[in-house]
Design goal:
Protein name: Methyltransferase 7A
Radius of gyration: 19 Å
GO molecular function: S-adenosylmethionine-dependent methyltransferase activity
Pfam families: Methyltransf_11
Largest sheet: 5 strands, mixed
Helix content: 40-55%
GO biological process, one term: methylation
CATH architecture: 3-Layer(aba) Sandwich
CATH topology: Rossmann fold
Bound molecules: S-adenosylmethionine
Number of strands: 5
Keywords: Membrane, Methyltransferase, Transferase, Transmembrane, Transmembrane helix
Distance between the termini: 68 Å
Number of helices: 6
Length: about 210
């Protein structure tokens, strides 16, 4: 009998959370994303520095960089864009799915940035192929995503079942997804946000992929 009460309470909780997230969709998601990003500032600073210096070294590019961020959200990554780009020049705002960026020319971007979007897109393989297409040779894609936790079975189960119900995003094996991308060189690292209530978001996977065509 007690199990019926517990299961009903859980179902009610999930349904109310779902209704809540739909009702407050934009504002609620933005708030959560800001909390998540506030725990990742140091990691992102190092990530952007390493990835950008990498392409600057190879291209000896001291001029402006063409940067495209996919699904910018509330612009949490702008402060990590290369020094000197404080006076960010927004040259184009493209409204399209990342799977098909028809408005963006091939080989036109020095840097592509995406954080926490591969869990929401319809086809992550198509997105990565599109990124590769629009990157210039020696260009870099900087990313940070979250993954299903393969090391902790109960958590993996909760993420797979409850995650999509309350957040509308898929909990997938992001290491496998990113490793199967088209990049010619890939750097991948993991990070855990050390806060109990962010357990479901962990592990974070981040790094960069380079396009190198001779
Ligand atoms: C969880 S939010 C992350 C926002 C932001 N990148 C951040 O890190 O705060 C997911 C984002 O993915 C975007 N998104 C979902 N499907 C997409 C698609 N097919 N192509 C491009 N962006 C997509 C949404 O518009 C939303 O901004």
């Amino acid at each position: 009998m007690i199990w019926i009460y517990i299961i009903s309470a859980l179902v009610m909780m999930i349904v109310s959370l779902k209704v809540f997230t739909i009702f407050f969709s934009g504002a609620f998601l933005n708030l959560i994303m800001r909390f998540i990003h506030s725990n990742l500032e140091t990691v992102k600073m190092k990530l952007f520095d390493e990835a950008i210096s990498n392409i600057k070294n190879t291209k000896k590019n001291s001029g402006n960089l063409e940067i495209l961020e996919l699904g910018i959200g509330t612009g949490e990554n702008f402060r990590h864009f290369p020094k000197g780009s404080n006076d960010l020049n927004v040259s184009k705002l493209v409204v399209s799915k990342a799977e098909e960026m028809v408005g963006i020319e091939s080989n036109s971007m020095d840097v592509v940035v995406h954080t926490f979007i591969l869990c929401s897109v319809d086809d992550n393989k198509k997105v990565m192929n599109e990124i590769y297409r629009i990157l210039k040779s020696d260009g870099v894609c900087i990313f940070m995503e979250h993954s299903v936790d393969l090391k902790k079975k109960p958590k993996k189960y909760i993420q797979s079942i409850i995650g999509p119900l309350i957040t509308d995003c898929k909990f997938i094996n992001m290491e496998k997804v990113l490793s199967s991308g088209p990049y010619d060189h890939l750097e991948l690292k993991f990070y855990q946000i050390n806060k109990f209530w962010m357990t479901l978001v962990n592990p974070i996977i981040y790094g960069y992929g380079l396009k190198k065509i001779k």
